[in-house]
Design goal:
Largest sheet: none
Shape: globular
Helix content: 55-70%
Number of domains: 2
Structural class: mainly alpha
Strand content: under 5%
Length: about 190
């Protein structure tokens, strides 16, 4: 196990709070294991450990704790430009371990952000695959990962195809993602 992961786990434990843990459990149904660490601490850790690279992202992604997995997404977002193909591969791997909306949204909004302009075709192809999944979190991810494109009208028809496929989805968190993108596209955001 790399030294960085041991250090991060120690820092997560040191920054854990019962109040944050209780808040996570209340706001994010489905969290199985959490330290109870606030988001600003995760942001700080991502900044501090970005030089550890893709190996650390992989190790954190294997973790049992939601903060480790969210940190993996944040770290990937810090280094994605270094190797976009590797980043897309890791994104796909990390997506298999989503079990709540917070992790889904962290991965979808942060992990690929640096390459949304240069790898739009690959991102939309992946979103199309996830959109047809039997897994509710992958269906939600198919929309969250293209949210950045709602700001550019040239992508709206592609986004609408993804949304239309899920408009009748029965899952609450998928419906919320459809409504979120609809709102953003209508705002011109």
């Amino acid at each position: 196990m790399p030294i960085a992961i041991q250090q991060i786990r120690s820092e997560l434990k040191a920054n854990a709070s019962e109040a944050v843990y209780a808040s996570h459990k209340k706001l994010v149904p489905g969290i199985n294991k959490a330290y109870g660490v606030a988001m600003p601490v995760l942001n700080k850790l991502a900044q501090e450990h970005k030089s550890a690279g893709f190996e650390l992202v992989e190790e954190l992604g294997k973790g049992d704790y939601v903060e480790e997995k969210i940190l993996a997404a944040k770290l990937l977002g810090k280094i994605a430009k270094k190797n976009p193909e590797k980043s897309l591969q890791l994104f796909k791997h990390l997506s298999k371990h989503i079990d709540n909306w917070a992790l889904c949204d962290a991965l979808g909004m942060q992990a690929l952000k640096p390459i949304v302009k240069t790898h739009d075709t690959e991102i939309f192809d992946l979103a199309g695959q996830f959109n047809k999944s039997g897994n509710l979190w992958l269906r939600r991810l198919s929309l969250v990962m293209v949210e950045w494109y709602t700001r550019d009208k040239k992508y709206h028809s592609e986004i609408r195809k993804l949304m239309n496929h899920l408009k009748e989805d029965r899952e609450y968190y998928v419906k919320k993602a459809v409504a979120w993108l609809e709102r953003n596209m209508n705002k011109g955001k």
